[in-house]
């Protein structure tokens, strides 16, 4: 295990970009669009790094309308961080060159961590690092095409406990010029179940000391983030499910890493982290409003917001009928009226800071036929393996 690391005001350097404190919003399909990034960034005071949801390289190169909207950044987003998914090195290279030539982003992250079947069945996401030569080819194309833009990658431990890839993948990344690696301490087979293996994060940090290693998995609070850094020696943290329905978690993270005092309960005016239901309701309406403005249609924005309702209300005393009502609203007026019918003076509920989002595990991994026969042979992987739509 590494020597315990100081967590007071640490700095993460990704190419020319200084990220202080070293806190990163994980790309999440359908979640980390511009409105959600705006909320998280506001609570952090503009500190940290906020990554777009997954953008498929084929859809980007073909200028898919949905994809072109997903890559839009607010003028206040600095640096603009964009995550790409791709399986074909040539297509990845085209997408990266397009980003550079058209000044679409300041930082490119590559997705090798997604465990969902529609991605892994094509050899993408967390399945891809098993094919070492394919991984190397993609990284080489991306880094060459990126020029001065830093390229990073996010990955998992491997496909399952019998097919671990993260140490080999980490070494390949260093050799190909990747600037930082984020490791989710689970395998593809685990999906989001069980407990994240933080020891694997420590082993990766020891294995590739040349570049920053960020830890991901089971960070539900600022205390978890500090503990991960102390125990693993990682250079920063990537937070995903922990901020679902809790964009204010970034206020907590910034305060903790900077060694400051966290504001108390019900003090969101001071960027606190234990809001009352009234404050949560106000944030819910703002989130839905931002979505409507981004999409260009209030109703569609509120409909897109529906997926967030259960996360925001987790732990609060809200009856099942009211939850159902809020989950089918289609206007801001309807959403606000439903929220006003709740007991808004409820304090932040005990236990609501724990796990949220997907928690399924022990899933069968869906892979291309013969994928595990040879970790170096890339036969059968081509442009037809590229997803043609973005957002997961």
List strands and helices in order, with pairings.
Blueprint lengths: L11 E3 L2 E3 L3 E3 L8 H11 L4 E2 L4 E2 H5 L3 H6 L10 E5 L3 H13 L5 E6 L4 H4 L11 H15 L4 E6 L9 H10 L4 E5 L13 H10 L5 E4 L5 H11 L3 E4 L9 H9 L19 H19 L2 H8 L3 H5 L6 H7 L5 H9 L52
Helix pairs in contact: 1-10, 1-11, 4-6, 6-7, 9-10, 11-12, 11-15
Give a short summary of the structure:
This protein is α/β, with parallel strands linked by helices. The chain is built from 15 helices and 11 strands.
Task: Report what the structure shows.
The chain is of the alpha/beta class. The chain has 2 domains: 12-263, Alpha-Beta Barrel (TIM Barrel); 276-340, Non-ribosomal Peptide Synthetase Peptidyl Carrier Protein, Chain A (Orthogonal Bundle). It is built from 15 helices and 11 strands. It has a 9-stranded parallel sheet with strand order 4-3-11-10-9-8-7-6-5. It has a two-stranded antiparallel ribbon with strand order 1-2. Strand 10, helix 9 (222-232) and strand 11 form a beta-alpha-beta unit. Helix 4 packs parallel to helix 6 (132-146). The chain is globular, with a radius of gyration of 20 Å. Residues 1-5 and 263-272 have low confidence and may be disordered.
Q: Nearest-angstrom radius of gyration?
A: 20 Å
Mean pLDDT: 91
* CATH C-level category of the largest domain: Alpha Beta
Tell me the number of helical segments per DSSP (H or I, 4 or more residues long).
15
In which range does the helix fraction lie? 25-40%
SSE series: EEEHEEHHEHEHHEHEHEHEHHHHHH
DSSP strand count? 11
- Strand fraction: 5-15%
Structural class: alpha/beta
Head-to-tail CA distance between termini: 35 Å
Large-scale geometry? globular
| Spatial order of the strands forming the largest sheet | 4-3-11-10-9-8-7-6-5
For the largest beta-sheet, the strand count, sense and barrel status come to: 9 strands, parallel
Corresponding CATH superfamily of the largest domain: Aldolase class I
Integer count of domains: 2
Model regions low in confidence, pLDDT < 50 over at least 5 residues: 1-5, 263-272
